[in-house]
Amino acid sequence: MKSVLVTLLLGLLVVVDAANNTEATDCGPHGRWSDCAALCQPYCFSPPRPSPCTLPCQAGCECDEGYVRKQNFYGPCITEDECLYGP
Predict the structure, then answer these.
(1) Which CATH number fits domain 2-85: 3.90.650.10, 3.40.50.2000, 2.10.25.10, 2.40.330.10?
(2) Nearest-CA neighbor of 73 among 54, 57, 50?
(3) pLDDT tens across 14-28, in order?
(4) 30 touches 77 (CB < 8 A)
(5) Where is the TIL domain (predicted)?
């Protein structure tokens, strides 16, 4: 009986962990997951940044080519035209 209960609990932990990992990698439209996302991603009205980025990277979302963050590192990815004129 104990072994069945332990097996069920371990199975539940695996399912919960898999669900958490899926949520973490959902980057929304025009975004993609990267194990080494730049910490100095461009966003609407951001000042020019040095190229290449000299800050360390971290796992997270990046915008696809041609897109920038709407507000900050965590905002949705939009085109630069949408920064000026809205979606």
Answers:
(1) 2.10.25.10
(2) 57
(3) 444 444 444 457 899
(4) yes
(5) 27-83
